[in-house]
Amino acid sequence: MTTTRIAWRFSDRFDIHLLRGKKRRLDGLLLLHQADGTQPTGRDRPLPGDVASLTFVPRIKGAVVGGVITARGVKVDTATGEVEAVSPAPAPPLLSNLVVEARCQVNDAAAPGGVRNLVATMRIHVHTSVTRAWCTPTPLSIHKGADGQRLSVLAQFDDNTVGDITQHPGFAWASAIPGKVAVAATGELSAPGATGGPAVQVTATLSAELGGSAATGQVRVLDAWSAQPAAVRKATLVAGPGPEPAVMAQVPNVLFVAEGFPDTDADRFAFEQCAAEAVRQLRTSKATSPFNLIKDRVNYWRVFLPSNQSGESTLYELDLVNRGANIVGQEMPRPVAPNPLTALPPIGPLPPALEYRLENLVHLVGLPVPADAAVDLATKGGQWTAMFNDVDLRRVTLGLYDRWRDLNDRRVANERDTALGLAQGERPAYDLFFPERAIGPFFAMRTTREHLDQFLRTITRAGPAVIGATWDQHPSAPTPPGKDQDLVIALAFGARDSGATTQTNDRRHTQLVAVGLVSTSETPLKAVAGRREVDVLPNPLPRKGGTVVVVREVLARIAHETAHIARVGDEYGGKGGMPDDELDRLRGFANLQPRDDLLAVPFAGLRGGQVKWRWPRLLRAGRLKLALVDETGGVFRAELDPGHGASFAAPDLVRLRQPLPDGGVAVPKLSDELRVLSVAADKVRVQDLHGTVVVGDFPAGSVLCDPVPARASAVLAGDIFAELLDQVIRVHIDATGGPLNARPPLRDCVNDPVNGLQLATNLPAGLPFGRPRFRSWIVGLYEGGMEYDCRPYHPTGACIMRVLQVPAANPFTHTLTSNPGAIYRFCHVCQYVIVDRLDASRHADLEALFSGQDAQP
Predict the structure, then answer these.
(1) Alpha carbons 762 and 488: distance in angstroms, whole number
(2) Any residues with CB less than 8 A from the CB of 434 and at least 6 apart, and which?
(3) What is the spatial distance between Cα 470 and Cα 253, in angstroms, rounded to a whole number?
(4) Where does 451-549 show beta strands of DSSP type E?
(5) pTM, full prediction
(6) Over the stretch 330-355, which tens digit does the pLDDT of each residue have?
(7) How many CB atoms within 10 Å of residue 109?
(8) Helix 265-284 crosses helix 552-563 at what angle (to 10 degrees)?
(9) How far, rounded to the nearest angstrom, does the alpha carbon of residue 826 sit from its chain's CA centroid?
(10) pLDDT digits over 783-797, tens only?
(11) Is residue 136 helix, strand or coil?
């Protein structure tokens, strides 16, 4: 067995709340991921054969006796990860929260020193008691036949902090009317009785470890998703070639769904304006090209799903900030280890570059509690020195301490009752899996895609004609999933600047794209009188002269998320190195490639010849609607997508190119020359001039095309056609073995905290000026992708799939930019993929750009 990584069980990765006198063991929550897909826990014995050691180490000072570390009111067993909050508590200062690292050493002959060190981190909060608990949202609306939704349980503790305790074991659930709302031992809800009527009270009795008190909430039952009124099921075509079934069958059909819009005429109209404006800009703006190029090949629809409450749930912990009479919630700083202090100035204060940042302080000492608001730096600094090993008070300024202390009033907000139950971010955890700006994926305790499909398959157009099967991802056998199952986009009212794409478990399809409609990162809040609860308020939609507008950031986010439809992946990082078990997912994106597939031998340099976007640029193209047909005698028939035959005429010389890969590293095969014999509508008959075409090589999705010839210097080097990856850059990558954003000699990939524009610093000498206008547009290899900094590579240093907009200040020179807020365009490779998969006939328009102002070297 080969241990690839360690991680907490997905449902147990959140902060743990522990009361005095209670214990919680961590080894059973830790998964040791194996190369064969199995996931034994840290408690299972024997451990995998390559595991040399597994220990649980708290970041605190303490006495060690028999493998148990005792310090400031807690005990941690380093062998099992059992954490005990000691009762009665010893004399202060006491730990209010602590971090425990699961450290796994894996024997690996290929690793430096023969050992790989794997780490997973858990944060535990220590309290004396739960003073109040409640369920949220209340009410929660569930649809009959959409079983499995759950209420969340929040708690206020004696130290006046608020936390989510939903995943704590041992709850006892009960319904006041089980014949109408049933609740399983897991808290999962169902509606066996009649719909409508008043809400039903559901009670969660907390376990003894949490004090045994009760939390209540209300659940109301709605009609089944499949039994919605005709007005709700009716979809409207916003723009596109037409609503007729024959047209729908030939083009992509994007469906915008309302989320977080209440059932009022004003909100319905606002959603209609949002959808119309988003579609108008996608179809006309050059900033989000190529969606403007393919406008006549895509239908855009909208359907209004009313929500019981406005806005979206915010799951992550919020730092409360006063804005006059109002309150807003901001992101909490993520913990980041500080850079080591290698040398000190001989006299005077430390220069600012050596001072801790707020995220460093959270990493070192944890989070404050409300009582810390009255504690000064001198007192707290003394406590830190007594409790933690690595805090250097010389690097803590008074201003930094005040910012840390201001986090004491952090809260977890009540959730919202919306149509889809989407949520932003995830519950507090030391290592977040989903960023705060992510809305969705489907919140695990709310609506699922299977639930939504019950509604989607009933959608109608004008009149009674049902068209929803085209979006149905889970039809009853033997009906296949709809061809547009990937094209459902939720426009989320009230959400902060956010967006996300949820994939199916096999990573082959998109469950949902969700996009927030404002450009702020803040969340408006309302305090609940007399309690520590806060409710989320919706961010108002941006308007101009009373009309809803789609601001540039939202347009960019819609374009970015919509591009996932064509299997274009995210190009930003943030999570460090990518583990082995993400490789296949990475390979499924046309614009991403792992380092593993670019090496001639392990640990050698990158090979330009193995870059997978070595695709031929195309003067014209048409996509095969069906597989190539052999008419015998060397004659073949290619039936193209509607309208694509117009690009060809007898006696043109053309070729066939295989579909772009959904995985693997192979560059699509290009056939030898074919001569066009005839064109009848979109049926093109061609003659194989060399007798080399194999029908099975060119399935539906292949393209009939006319590749751009290579320039003279590339021909001398052996190229036949011009590729997206220019021959000069390909040779340079071979020569240096490195990506374009890292100067040789080779270096280890480093985490990129900026996640913005990447400069092309590793380029061959003598490149012509202005080809392209910006060096970061040069197609090659740049580090990062799929939220990982290291191991994935993407094609260019500037693309909307990495960063949406030009920042106000240049992150490298710190000078003001000339066009702040401008949308970063899609790079050549992403544009090529989107056009190729959605409307290959527009390759001619792309080539006009690629050979014009955006020409490569």
Answers:
(1) 40
(2) 425, 426, 441, 500
(3) 8
(4) 488-492, 499-503, 510-516, 523-527, 534-536, 543-544, 547-548
(5) 0.89
(6) 999 999 999 887 766 666 677 888 89
(7) 6
(8) 70
(9) 18
(10) 999 989 889 999 999
(11) strand
